[in-house]
Amino acid sequence: MSDFQIEVYQNEYLPQGAAEVNAIVTVTSSGSGAQVPASTPAAEVIIVDCSGSMDHPRTKMAAAKRATAAAIDTLRDGVAFAVIAGTDIATLVYPGKLGMAEVSPRTRAEAKAAVERLYADRGTAMGEWLLLAAQVFQTRQNPLRHAILLTDGKNVHERASKLDQILGEVAGEFVCDCRGVGTDWEVRELRKISETLLGSVDIVAEPEDLEQDFRAMTTASMGKEVADVALRVWTPQGARVKFVKQVEPALADLTGRREESGPRSGDYPTGSWGAESRDYHVCVQVSPANIGDKMLAARVSLVTRGGDVLGKGQVLAIWTDDTALSTKISPEVAHYTGQAELASAIEEGIEAQRTGDVETATAKLGRAVALAHSSGHEDTAKLLAKVVDVVDPARGTVRLKRDVSAVDAMTLESRSQVTKRVGKSGGQS
Fold first, then answer.
1. What is the DSSP letter of 310?
2. Which of 389, 421, 409 is nearest to 347 (CA)?
3. Verdict on whether the full-model pTM lies above 0.70
4. Average pLDDT per 10 consecutive residues for the chain, totaling 429 residues
5. DSSP, residue by residue, 29-82
6. Cβ atoms of residues 177 and 147 within 8 Å
7. Ramachandran category for residue 407: left, alpha or beta (phi over 0 → left; psi -120 to 50 → alpha)
């Protein structure tokens, strides 16, 4: 069973009149220290886009089949699993009727044979795929529920409002990692799905890379041990939570996902955990107090759906007239605020470039280059260099490249919210 630790990083000193407290909350799970026990109840659904575009070129469909087979082989024996084919409807490919099979040599062979018979036809309605996945998961009591969704196109046969409605219905039912193969899909569409379902989104530019990516996602899924974990934030009378955001390993705003859990207490979903560490930015609005006053601005704890407390931390506020104390910026808070600005600059720059607004695109992507340079985000800097010619990285002086490949632009956009952890300056648990 995983052990959890919570550490809080902040500058608790506030100047007179200040009413906002910021803290970075680091949650670390040790994992079981060994391979996840085979008895850990997990369930996996693999959703494969089988729309007509998957046949252009034909290597996409063939690669998707190989990747699905690799994922099935990576599942440990005893795990419940199913495969769904997605077009403008959703079809359960394996098992043959609504439900899930348990992984064994026999069911692996049967499932891979069923996947091999898949063919590309019809349209795309991703909400229907997710709805069937939720129905399949509901046939089992397994708490650890993970899905992989693969597509190569846009959700053209379903209204955006319908997808939003379905996402509202299935949120909290399972975690879903989304992958787009090629360059004809829409990053914002898959990001909406992955963020709602607490998963990830990424591009797989070349079909032959799908197999490795599916195997990696399934391996990570098999490493989860604790399901339905929430970050619970309690605030005192007169204080309120302004926002809660995951800031590492990727940006995700959890503020709107709050569920009330008691007087002045709310839960923010974090999904399933294995051996890993994540950072959250908690911002609390408080009533300004007198110089010298000290208060508990928030109590942060990690809880299971059953109410078990896995770890605790405190966010403090002390009002002072010592400017040397109150003006000191927590490096952790400053770092992740910069990471959020970096992601925003990239997204706005790519959108401006897409619409032909050269001036805005140059300014935004130039700002992104400067932020990536100052924060040591080398991976993002390399991706930016494929979209702009960098003249001065420190100042953010850039020129837009004349011919930017769709792969380079989409890779930058899809990975814009991946963050880089800052070295910790010390905190209290």
1. E
2. 409
3. yes
4. 89 95 96 71 97 95 98 97 98 97 98 98 98 98 96 96 98 97 96 97 97 97 95 97 97 97 96 96 96 97 93 97 93 94 97 96 98 93 97 97 94 95 67
5. E---SSSPPTTS-EEEEEEEE-SGGGGSSTHHHHHHHHHHHHHHHHSPTT-EEE
6. yes
7. alpha
